Amino acid sequence: MIRIAVVGLGKMGLSHQSIINAHPGVKLAAICDRTGYVLDVLNKYTGVPTFSDFDAMLREVELDAIIIATPSGMHGPMVKAALDKNIHVFCEKPFNLNAEEARELAILADEKKLVNQVGYHYRFVGTFQEVKRLLDAGVIGDISHVLAEAYGPVVMRPKGSTWRSQRDAGGGCLYDYAAHPINLVNWYLGMPYGVGGSVLNSIFSKETDDEVFGSLYFEGGQSCQVSVNWSDESYRKMSAKISIWGSAGRIIADRQEMQVYLRDTAKIPEGYLQGWNVRNITELTEEVWFYVRGEEYSAQLDYFVKCIEEKQLDNVNSFSNAAMTDKVIEMMIADAAKGASVTGDKAVPITRERRKGFFPFLSAN
Amino acid sequence: MENLLFGDNQFFGVNHMSEEKARSQAMRFQDINTVIEVLDNAYDEGIKTFMCTTHERIELVCNHMRANPERYADYQFMPCMPYAHKYANAMTDHGMLGAIKHFLPEEGFLDVAMRSGMSLAKKDIEGMTTLLIDAEMKMFSGLKTPVIFLQNVVVDFLLGLGFNEAFRIFANHVKVRYGAEPGFITMNMPKLLDVLESLGIENPIICSNINKVGFRMSGGFEAYEKALKEKKFRAIAMSVFASGAISPREAIEWVCQQPNIESIVFGASSKGNIRSTRELVDQYWSK
Fold first, then answer.
1. Considering only residues 275 to 314 of chain A, which have any Cβ-Cβ distance to chain B shorter than 8 Å?
2. Is pLDDT at B103 greater than 90 in this prediction?
3. In this model, does residue B109 exceed pLDDT 70?
4. Which of A147, B9, B18, B101 could form a disulfide with A243 if both were Cys (CB 3.0 to 4.6 A apart)?
5. Do B22 and A237 touch (CB under 8 A)?
6. What is the CATH number of the domain that holds A215?
7. A359 in any annotated domain
8. Residue predicted with more confidence, A360 or B191
9. A253-291 pLDDT, tens per residue?
């Protein structure tokens, strides 16, 4: 039995708690959160031991592993404290708001030979996994361009009262939404050497961004366009999509479906034909032992447990992988602050004029 | 329970195969009259039960049914609550407690105020839960709701946590307040069944994926077969076509051969598909 604690009982933490508690190889040893209320309710009805003090929990409970789902700005010290106690760590994304600290934690985890994983669950979605398999096999030839998108209806009005509405705490469309497609691009193409044309715009939020656009440039000459908006109500829920252009074909994938066009010059893999191929999640998904909200959420935690049991350390979604995404995010924030390139090659920051008054929503166009 | 129940995924842009298809369906059913037209087609095929999410647009369907009592004399709803996305999005916006408060009635009758205020203070989920159920049931007032379901995302979330008391509270409130049978939708039928048994919820109505290819039958195909064969519960099969992975004839023939299934819930948008499903069930279902 692997003894696990869950820290941070927001949307993701509670979801992780439910899934991991149902894992036959795991004993949920403790949960930890600052909100006493949530702890008391969970303790009263499920009997799980609770802590409101993270350090006290680490001192008092014998743990093999920990799931950290606190606001992103709090990840660093908690991950460090867990690694120092030789505890395997699963941490929510984005891993760290400071890319340098992310890198140091990745090195520490590797030195200590501890399993380290970050919750980029799209890497556990059947369609996106199949894209990876096709790209690694060079099926669509030389990749020239990737379009990485995500849209959904998270922030639809100016008011927001949680950490997710503040960039300093790790809130906002870039950290929360854009991190996912960027991470998939890191998986497919690796680390970009540069970024450009980054736009971080607010639509409703006062203290963070609601839409993110930008370009990523790769050593091999490939480019990537990022287009993300979490204030788009025309989507029922978050929808991430990747489109990839290659010299021998094109791949379009979202959570449900993968469409692949292969030219006659393509290395056509088994089960595929020249021309259009459509494959659906129903045939690409492996069943999970317990399902709450999508196979990928169960699969990533099951994988974490298996990696601990089998002492596998070169796992998917490692800290060093996630640190790449943290770095790209950091580069995009810096790039966006520079503003547009204008005549004379001078970059000047452009701030949108905002009307003032009693009805701030009128000024959000 | 009728052997065919009509589902509502197709009306609200839910499609497990394709986002494009989901969007085009959402556009087609933007006008509630197109939804009602499909429900009418099903009704005229003898499918008189609508198993639907408590999506806000369902209220328009309810209004239509209430306004035409003669046309829909035998019509019944099986509400599935809650419509989870509104809570999930509210949680990002307001945090967990904030989200609960957001959906609890702010003021009103003494009973509501008592249940909400007292239960928040006492960390007693019974008051809060029953209030949330009542809020979701409002739109069905005056209509027949013989079975009320708890949605899978909530059932399975609670099941994972081991928050079993919530199932008892739900079952009890639905019976007492609405004279309805409690139903549970789940992606983990064998595990849920064990828990409900241990709570003394006898012969429960459980709606879960039951299909030939084992799609989203968590706990394993064999465990499902065993439960259907050996356990006492009222099974409703959903996702029988595994989102289109199995041909209709093959899918229905297989489901109809399984023991202990009381009903199949399916969604369709065209008269032709509704009729052919009806005909396949008539052909393969041996009562």
1. 280-283, 285, 287-293, 295, 298
2. no
3. no
4. A147
5. no
6. 3.30.360.10
7. no
8. B191
9. 999 999 999 999 999 999 999 999 999 888 898 999 999
Provide the number of CB pairs (under 8 Å) joining chain A to chain B: 139
User: pLDDT at position A162, please?
Assistant: 78
Q: Which amino acid is at A357?
A: G
A-chain CB neighbours of B159 within 8 Å are: 18, 22
Tokens of B89: 């999005």
- Residue A348, in any domain of the structure: no
Longest CA pairwise span in chain A (Å): 67
* B58 has a pLDDT exceeding 50: yes
| Identity of the residue in A9, A153, A282 whose CB atom sits nearest the CB atom of B243 | A282
CA A5 – CA A58 distance, rounded (Å): 9
Distance between CA atoms of residues A291 and B156, nearest Å: 7
Beta bridge partners of B77: B50
According to the model, what pLDDT value does residue A79 have? 98
Within A47-199, residue ranges assigned H as helices are: 54-60, 75-84, 99-111, 126-136, 173, 179-189
Taking the Cβ of residue B245 and every Cβ of chain A, the question of whether any pair is shorter than 8 Å is answered with: yes
Domain that holds residue A26: 2-121+304-316
Judge whether A275 lies within some domain.
yes
Domain annotation covers residue A354: no
Low-confidence ranges of chain A (pLDDT < 50): 354-365
Same domain, A245 and A257: yes
A164 and A73 assigned to the same domain? no
Are residue A139 and residue A258 in the same domain, yes or no?
yes
Q: Domains of chain B, with CATH numbers? A: 4-82+144-284 (3.20.20.100)
A contacts of B89 (beta carbons < 8 Å): 153-154, 156
B96 contacts A292? CB cut-off 8 A: no
Strands (E), B17-91: 49-53, 76-81
Residues B161-190, mean pLDDT to the nearest whole number: 96
- Mean pLDDT of all residues in B221-245: 94
Q: Are A18 and A107 within one domain?
A: yes
